Amino acid sequence: MNAFLDQLAKRTRESARRRNAATAAIAGVRPPTVLDRLSTTENERGDRGPGAGCRRGNGVVHDAEQERVLRRHGGCRDSRRAALADAGGTLEQIQQAYAGYVYGDSTSGQKALYGVGMTGIPVVNVNNNCSTGSSALWLARQAVASGAAECVLALGFEQMERGALTMKWTDRPSPFADFMDVARKAQGESDVPFAVQLFGGAGAYAEKYGTKPETFAQITVKARKHAANNPFAVFRDAVTVEEVLASPQIYGPLTRLQCCPPTCGAAAAVITSEGFARRHGLRTDVVIVAQALTTDTPSSLDGDMPRLVGYDMAKTAAHQVYETARVDPRDIRVVELHDCFTTNELLSYEALGLTPEGTAEKLVAEGDNTYGGRVVTNPSGGLLSKGHPLGATGLAQCAELTWQLRGDAGGRQVDGAALALQHNIGLGGAAIVTLYEKAS
Question: Catalytic residue at 130?
Fold first, then answer.
């Protein structure tokens, strides 16, 4: 098995080196060695519309080529191998696995893992809507923190369909029924897709604080600027505020270019205890110092549209993280947050405590959400530029922040980043906030 894995890792490294040769300086790919390398693999992109001491290595691959790659779980194999190679570990060292996806038959996680090897370990399949990837990460970290395991794999993947998200099961109660009832009472009936109704309706924030349409559009402009340096992003071409506002109107303040695209992809992270990593010579350069998972409270359904899409969930999770880590959010220099729509990015600035309530527009206007400002949000380009493969998104965020803390983000690198914050949210609902730290 070791020889087999070594051959797989060698082929993955050679393939990654060939594909990334032209973008090595940007992606931060270093000369591939076994124990000290940033291992990334990427297939063709497409534009389809526990406490302190838990350590991890990670790898990420985005792939929008549904039929040829993801149906064979090829993208998943690449991300798993990259995660193992990056950590400096082998498949036999993995003691548990948590596989996150939303659209797929039961035990798809086993199918994805069996592509690398069948070792008989526990495999748990995870579905928590758009926060699925981070939910798998949360479970992996819980397993290590509790002492139940010392080396755990979190894997996320998704084969998305074209077009907007829809409710799949019409013959049973929907988990979104109560949310849609609130939305209809607040803003009337609409035939636009449900996610757009909810997050577009969250633009009610603009009515409360007088936020200009240009402010929301500027978030897309920023996303594209950041994505220009990310070889894993789908949309890397620059756009102007005028172009964003001129794209087709969707709902509320949202135009088409302010909505993330559905894309296919896979990502993975290996979580270990510090002791396990040191005993086995694995990487120990990034640590999860705090993490929180929250769900809805009655305030989510009180008629306020921002709270309906998870504002309070995110705020509570962030507060728990800051309290646990004893960190002031003003000390955080880099954040990957859930920008499924520009409205949600703006709301998240305040929910995460990056700026006081009612001041998000000022943060954007003064450039304090990008390079040269106080905090760089979504240096990867975010969901607006990379797309949103539901099961993979949270783990892709994990990968980006790990690269940032290691100084391996190339042209996206945020100078002086010692802490990094991740925010991943799913309607219905769940919010996961994770704080990473560069190990001394």
Answer: yes
